[in-house]
Automatic annotation (TrEMBL):
InterPro entries noted in UniProt: SH3_domain_YSC84-like, Ysc84_actin-binding
Domain Ysc84 actin-binding: 75-191
Pfam families with a match to the protein in the record: Ysc84
Lineage: Eukaryota, Fungi, Dikarya, Ascomycota, Pezizomycotina
Protein name stated in the entry: Ysc84 actin-binding domain-containing protein
Organism: Exophiala sideris
Length: 200
């Protein structure tokens, strides 16, 4: 199994856990322009820092999902007072601009007040909630919500993408649907389940 497949399996498990706990409504995923799913850690004692990795997929014009693009996360300013905190995060990308941020070789989450905690629960009424470019869902130590990911830096993992797709390819090309992905991972089925189209 390649590195991208491992990232996609991990992302599938993360997304599935949020869906099964009723934390992300199906209509939020169904209307999303993209999803970025990652796990990370925050460490702080004398130096605060964070790291992690994940994948992003984008909605194509025909309504299907693009192949996944791998990325890494890092931050110098997010942390707990002592020890290490491991967390999972799903970013629902509600605008094309939010998706395009992941097409850059590097970007920072939360610039310009674009982040907000997403609506929770299967009956959440999103018509009354202001739609921010990015809605975030987080889980840390088994607890959902309450974690901010503002200021985290996202970097494209071009080596893993090239390994997976067999050639030098950019995140932009992947997220615009210019390449196909032969997946044997959990992620495509979980994406369908998240939209209410099928059950894993």
């Amino acid at each position: 199994m390649g590195n991208l497949d491992k990232e996609c399996d991990k992302a599938g498990q993360i997304l599935k856990s949020f869906i099964e706990k009723g934390k992300i409504p199906a209509h939020v995923i169904a209307k999303a322009k993209g999803l970025a799913i990652f796990s990370g850690f925050r460490a702080a004692m004398y130096l605060a820092g964070a790291g992690g990795s994940g994948v992003v997929v984008a909605r194509l014009p025909d309504g299907s999902w693009s192949a996944p693009s791998a990325f890494s996360v890092k931050s110098g300013g997010v942390g707990l007072a002592y020890g290490v905190d491991v967390y999972d995060c799903v970013c629902v990308l509600n605008t094309q601009e939010a998706v395009e941020a992941y097409m850059k070789s590097e970007t920072t989450l939360g610039a310009g007040a674009t982040l907000a905690a997403g609506p929770v629960g299967g009956t959440a009424d999103i018509s009354t909630k202001e739609v921010k470019p990015i809605w975030t869902y987080t889980k840390s130590r088994g607890l959902y919500g309450g974690l901010t990911v503002e200021g985290i830096s996202i970097s494209e993992r071009s080596g893993i993408n090239a390994e997976a797709y067999g050639s030098k390819i950019t995140a932009t090309q992947i997220l615009r649907g210019e390449t196909k992905w032969r997946s044997t991972t959990l992620l495509p089925e979980v994406l369908k389940m998240g939209e209410g189209k099928s059950v894993v």
